[in-house]
Design a protein that fits this description.
Pfam families: ACT. The protein is 36% helix and 23% strand. With 154 residues, it is an alpha+beta fold. It has a four-stranded antiparallel beta sheet, with helices on one face.
Length: 154
């Protein structure tokens, strides 16, 4: 049976393979991605030359392979927000995060100045969670939240 291209885009299967079963070009693409993400290579040209593949091979597979980290649960996102210093405000934010199926890794809250507190959060965003941008939007809708900004997503 022939697979329709549109069928493949709506539902994709993911596979976990041992390194020896992965074609060398894909391993090199993953290494080029790592060089770019870490800043050890400043351009695709530099990264592909470093690992010994063509740029066309890189562009063909760059979004299709990434290193599987057995101990990683999701993606990390960092947010900053300003809230009114009112009883229950932090609790409302934390409840919204929990209801969005996002785990909190760290919390840093400033001492309130003029009735406004700053909050910095590091979050573990899993496949079952809402996106960091959607979470920021949900938190911004709470009364007493002045703004929410996603600083980084990994």
């Amino acid at each position: 049976m022939k697979t329709n291209v549109s069928d493949r885009t709506t539902k994709e299967n993911l596979y976990v393979l041992r390194e020896h079963a992965v074609p060398e070009v894909l391993i090199k693409v993953a290494e080029a991605n790592r060089l770019l993400e870490s800043g050890k290579a400043e351009s695709v040209q530099e990264a592909t030359e470093a690992v010994g593949i063509s740029r066309s091979s890189y562009y063909k597979y760059k979004d299709d392979i990434s290193l599987f980290h057995e101990n990683s649960r999701g993606r990390t996102a960092n947010m900053v927000m300003q809230l009114d210093d009112e009883r229950g405000m932090l609790s409302s934010v934390l409840r919204t995060i929990s209801d969005s199926n996002v785990n909190i890794l760290t919390i840093q809250q400033s001492v309130p100045v003029h009735g406004i507190a700053s909050l910095i959060l590091s979050l573990d965003v899993t496949q079952d969670s809402v996106s960091p941008d959607e979470l920021a939007s949900r938190i911004e809708q709470l009364d007493g939240v002045h703004y929410v900004k996603v600083l980084a997503k990994e």
